[in-house]
Design a protein that fits this description.
13 strands, six-stranded mixed sheet, alpha/beta, single chain
Length: 201
């Protein structure tokens, strides 16, 4: 499956008439958060494939206007083609105005969903907004990752984790790492194109 992943930064060319010819054919679009609903709607219309999204810390406007024609992955497990996606959006809660969670809250939220995933065949792709603690995050509270996501990868061992939140311009940030569980962990700020083989179940 070929996936177009987007997060955090709006790219004008990605909503233009030439976007499909520049990107090529994709099977799904995944948003890792902090993008306006209208932007996602435009991308979904242009590419005409399933668009899955989680909430970023700044996506509270989705309460009034969720991205139309797109499918929320927030706290859910969704199948697209042969792949199973699981979504856990939000960031560390650093004030009361963001879509955020304490570490404890994220742990219980993750555990409930991960146990459901294990009972139903696992997942192939974990989609989050925040990174794993210690893997592509920063030391300040607003951009700290979740240790709960480290536990999630150890439990489920998906092939891929896609996240955003930490912009490349914030400093020297590795855009791709491999977790000890074997999962490729990709920062998707802006956009990324990923080819993921069909799983053997």
């Amino acid at each position: 499956m070929r996936i177009l992943a987007v997060a955090d930064t709006e790219l004008g060319w990605l909503t233009g008439v030439e976007a499909r010819s520049q990107v090529g054919e994709v099977d799904a679009v995944v948003s890792c958060g902090d993008l306006p609903a209208a932007y996602l709607e435009h991308i979904e219309t242009l590419f005409n494939v399933p668009l899955l999204y989680v909430w970023g810390n700044h996506d509270t406007a989705y309460r009034a206007h969720a991205p139309e024609g797109c499918q929320s992955l927030e706290g859910r497990i969704v199948e697209v083609g042969s792949l199973r996606f699981m979504g856990l959006g939000g960031s560390v809660r650093y004030n009361n105005r963001v879509f955020g969670f304490t570490e404890r809250d994220m742990y219980w939220r993750m555990l409930k969903l991960a146990l459901r995933a294990k009972a139903t065949g696992g997942i192939d792709v974990l989609v989050t907004h925040a990174p794993v603690r210690g893997m592509g995050d920063l030391d300040d509270m607003a951009h700290r990752g979740f240790a709960a996501l480290d536990t999630c990868l150890a439990m489920l061992r998906p092939a891929l984790m896609l996240y955003g939140h930490v912009h490349p311009e914030y400093g020297r940030i590795e855009r791709e790492r491999v977790h000890p569980a074997g999962t490729r962990v990709l920062n998707c700020c802006g956009y990324r194109i990923i080819d993921l083989p069909d799983p053997v179940r």
